[in-house]
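During the no-cost extension, the postdoctoral fellow (Dr. R.K.) reprocessed legacy sequence entries with the updated structure-token encoder. One reprocessed record is reproduced below for audit purposes.
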Amino acid sequence: MKNTPRVGVVGAGSLGFHHIRILRDLPGIEFSGFVESRAERRTEVEKELRVRSHVTLDGLLEASDAVVIVVPTSSHFAVASAAIERGQHVFIEKPITTTLEEADILLDLARKKGVMVQIGHIERFNRAVRAALPHVNSPRFIDSERLAPFSPRGSGVAVVLDLMIHDIDLLLTLVGSEARTRIARVWLAKKPRKRRALPRDMPAPASTRAMCRPRPLHPLPARPTTTMSAKHVALAMGAQTSGSSGRPRLWARRKVSGPTAME
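Re-encoded structure tokens follow.
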């Protein structure tokens, strides 16, 4: 790799656009361009951001030392494999792949090639989460909701991989340990008044009870999370839209309670 790493972007959709915009102006790297399978979208982004585009993935990989992968989840494995095979570092938007088997293969390949694989679990860097972390000490119970209007962008995978995966990562960040226990069940509502239960493994650190509730059909986005520790300190944190501006309102507060059933 050169002294100044060349970084490119695969995918120029709604999220890929912002990766391109930020990398274009990021100091310390050389932005090597982007690739987008839709010719009309590729031309649109190229003109709006005044950046270089590539017609093929091979063309971008040839010009890059590392790539940011922002394509539909079903294509993560194929695109990341091609980049890693060339010895390139990859940043993959969550979820890493559609299956655990594909994820294991990617990580094994990365170890053999000596490259880094990073996944876009950004919720742990949310300002409200960072503000609340100093107050979180050995949490015993965590309740996390993730409310969002429906978006077809994430509909290619289960709601667990699209939304709840943020809360699982946040859960592990708050507890600060690896998962030792697995629980169980996710309720999905396809239509009003019609629900079905699907068994699904979700990690939960030992000695911590957690409830994660993603709701992909909510009219307003919000991410409230509440924790309770053995010292009876409850914390709430999240981000939600407020007013007509649509700007996020971040908050973190500490509330001291009396003895609880968590003792």
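The helical segments are 14-25, 39-49, 57-62, 76-85, 100-113, 127-132, 159-175. The chain has two domains: 6-119, 123-256. The remaining legacy entries will be reprocessed before the final report is submitted.
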